[in-house]
Specification:
154 residues, mainly alpha, two-stranded antiparallel ribbon, 7 helices
């Protein structure tokens, strides 16, 4: 459950990027709240988790013209899905970084580096290297590239 709490924290940090653009759409927030409820209570209802995740991803599709909002909604959908498959926590962090980069392309390198450091600092030391080692950030002339490596053991 520690990974789910961390994933929810990652998603919640970028949630304002979605909510500012789509203030009437609460699907990503509901997904994060469902994740936190599971962490808090230990009660797992697959239909609720799946519904919250799919709703957040639908919100992302509806926000396709706003990359930062779209990625923020995807982070929420991945966070709640951690209840089903722990590796979805990686996706929450990955999409949160993509949201940060999309929100400020000119300042993306510094902001993504700071957000990635924040993410890493909140992971238990035993998980830090494994998780953050799979989320690659590369600064290029054209901006910042963020990739999630799903290879062996994922």
């Amino acid at each position: 459950m520690a990974m789910a709490a961390w994933a929810a924290d990652c998603a919640e940090r970028v949630l304002p990027l979605f909510e500012t653009a789509y203030p009437e759409d609460n699907r990503p927030r509901n997904a994060i709240e469902a994740c936190r409820a599971w962490v808090r209570t230990g009660v797992f209802r697959m239909a609720e988790i799946r519904g919250a995740s799919l709703a957040a991803h639908a919100a992302a599709r509806d926000a396709k013209e706003n990359d930062a909002a779209c990625f923020a909604a995807r982070a929420a959908g991945q966070a709640v899905a951690t209840a089903h498959v722990p590796q979805h926590a990686y996706g929450a962090a990955y999409y949160a970084l993509k949201a940060v980069a999309a929100a400020d392309p000119a300042g993306a390198a510094a902001k993504v580096a700071a957000e990635r450091e924040w993410q890493a600092e909140r992971l238990p030391e035993g998980l830090r290297e494994e998780i953050m080692g799979r989320i690659a950030v590369q600064v290029r002339r054209g901006g910042v590239s963020i990739k999630l490596w799903k290879g062996e053991g994922f």
